[in-house]
Fold this sequence. Notes:
Low-confidence stretches: none
Shape: elongated
Number of strands: 7
Helix content: 25-40%
Radius of gyration: 20 Å
Order of helices and strands: EEHEEHEEEHHHHHHHHH
Mean pLDDT: 95
Distance between the termini: 59 Å
Largest sheet: 5 strands, mixed
Structural class: alpha+beta
Strand content: 15-25%
Amino acid sequence: MSEKVKVRFKVRRFLNGKRWWQEYEVEVDRFTTVVQVLRQIKETQDPTLSFRASCHMAVCGSCGMKINGKPKLACKTIVLKEAKNGEIKLEPLDMKVVKDLIVDMDEFYVKMEKIDPRLRPEESVLSGNKEHRLKPEDQRELWSFAQCIWCGLCYSACPVTKYNKNFLGPAALAKAYRFISDPRDTETEKRIERVNSLDGIWACRVAGSCSVVCPRGVDPSLAIQKTKALVL
Length: 232
């Protein structure tokens, strides 16, 4: 049996324009994740606490939040590895807050859609008259950038998105490079045009915080620099 210890959770609450900190105490063991704690709090202590969580496998990206000030997935974060002096702080991501730990992702999704995040192959491929295979070296180049789960952690961590609301953001630019580097795509030039602007790749200041917080190992900062190199 794993030994259980008590940990204090300070949660940043938000409702009807009011913000406040609320504390909860929960017993955890060395396997307990933050999202498990949140579910326990909601079920046994405070049914009004609001948060998002779905897959519990770091695939859906819905449980993104700031844990001790850093954007992370709650389902992937082990409580005892993150607790400092028996305490953990939970806050919403740096986006418009809807309620408690739930943020409005609409702005993020709009920017992702601006780069047309889908493959546009040749008509002959779509009609079934031709097959366009991907070479292993091409697959290796785009694979890591295809792992994005649209969680928004990198968007929250990026310092540029804080002051430039038109900046496409690291997730969108990494996704754009994923298709730009795909030889099966027919809209490479159009994609480069979309991101080659002061609100695209040239707004990036190479802080690298986007790459640090990514739970899937995507490197948005690298994707942006690679796109800059292609443009130049």
